[in-house]
Every structure is written in C-alpha cells, then in structure tokens.
Amino acid sequence: MTGASSGIGWATARVLASHGAQVALLARRAERLTELAQEIDSAGGHALALPADVTEFGQVQTAVDRATAEFGGVDVLVNSAGIMLPGLIAEADPADWDRMVSVNLMGSMYAARAVLPGMQERGQGHIINVSSNSGRVHQPSFAAYAATKHALGAFTTILRKEVYPSRLRVTLLEPGATESELSQHADQEVLGDLLAGMGDGNGMRLMTTDDVANAILWSLTAPPHVNVGEILYTPVDQRDW
Question: In 3D, which of 138, 157, 149 has the Cα closest to residue 198?
Fold first, then answer.
C-alpha cells in the first residue's frame, strides 16, 4: 500500500485490515505509518510499517522485499501515493511538475515493477492504480496533474495486456471529488473554483476516503475469474467526469 500515511491509502489500509488482510504500509512519514500500524495491530490485524520514498526505486524494492519476507509474498498492490500542485502553465514552477511526475506516475511504475516478478512467479496478484477523473477531464491549472493521471491510465492498460493471459488482475480506479489530505497541497482558491465548476453551483457533497477504500475492497473481492479493469467513481452530483 503506497501513500499509506494519509488520505485514500490510510483509509484503504484500515478497511482491508478490517477484512482480514495483512497490510504493508509504504510512505515517507514514518511516524504516521507507525501510528496506523499500531491501530491496526491493536484491532487484531497485522500491519508492517515500511518508510520509503516511492520516487526512489531502490527504496521501493527494499520495502517490497521486506513485505515479501514478512508475509510470504505480496498478493495485492494498491498504488495510492499522489500529490496535486495546480498552476497555470505559463506561471507554474517546473519543479512542481517534476514532483507530480515522480510521485504520481513513476512511484506507481516503480511499485508495480517491484511486485510484478513475485506475482508472476506465484501465478496470482492484483495491482490497483489509484488515478483520478482528472485523467479524463481537463481543467485550467491542472495540466500537469491531469497529464500524470492520463499517463498512469496508459501504463495500467499496457500492464494488463502484458500480464495476459495469466491470472493476475489489474485495475484502474478513477475517483472524482474526494475530501482528503491531497487537496491540502493545492491553492485553496484554485481548488474551490475547480469544485464549483464540477457541480451545479449549489455545493457538492464530496466523497470520503472510506468511500474510495470501499471501491477498492469491492474490486478485490470480485470472483477470481473476474477482472475489474476500470472504476470511475464520483459524487452523484459531480457533473464533469
């Protein structure tokens, strides 16, 4: 589970653990991972805190190796690490673009690369890449973020084709407007304008991270012969998706 220190990753780890999964928690913030692991363990589950920077392949591989040693293999990868730094193209800081590409795209690619050989050797596994409906719709100030999500969608499709016809499953999850820590990285005025344009102007009830976590759980619990290839998941009153 990448991005496990907050948001969708945090919520998904808790939901999966409550349904009996042993979870390996990857993120940079070690103290947050320890807090979550202790919560899961106290509730009768089993969690392993693995501080790692997903933009460094060596750190990701080391974390996967530790999870494999602890659990006997990695059967599920949920790539939920992400960052959103909006800005108009003519005014944006290119360093922000680099950060989004490194985390949103390369982080997911690195994690998939690290777990895939083991999954193929065992003949089972499920990789879920958490994208965004920004991979489908295009709003000013979100060009680089949307570009990373488009690219993640392409990577996920090709991954699915490359593992065919094995029993490995690959899912692209595209959440719409969700209340999470991700939005705190963004300029709140820009974000407010974006959300206002998505609905009818009278306000929109955002999804919670638990809502998204339950979509992930649903895809994982599909019958073994079923692959949930893509999930577009939005608030009922979100217009643009």
Answer: 138
Q: Which of 113, 103, 132 is nearest to 240 (CA)?
A: 132
pLDDT digits (tens, 9 = 90+) for 43-53: 999 999 999 99
* pLDDT tens column, 15-62: 999 999 999 999 999 999 999 999 999 999 999 999 999 999 999 999
Sorted by sequence, the CB contacts under 8 Å of residue 176 that are 6+ apart come out as: 132, 133, 198, 207, 232, 233, 234, 235, 238, 241
Q: Report strand pairing: 126-130 vs 169-175.
A: parallel
- Does residue 195 come out as left (phi exceeding 0), alpha (psi in the -120 to 50 range) or beta? alpha
Among candidate residues 216, 11, 234, the one with its CA nearest the CA of residue 136: 234
Q: For the CA atoms of 6, 210, 138, 145, what is the dihedral angle to 10 degrees?
A: 10
Give the global pTM. Answer: 0.92
Catalytic residue list contains 145:
yes
> Residue 228, by phi and psi: left (phi above 0), alpha (psi -120 to 50) or beta?
beta
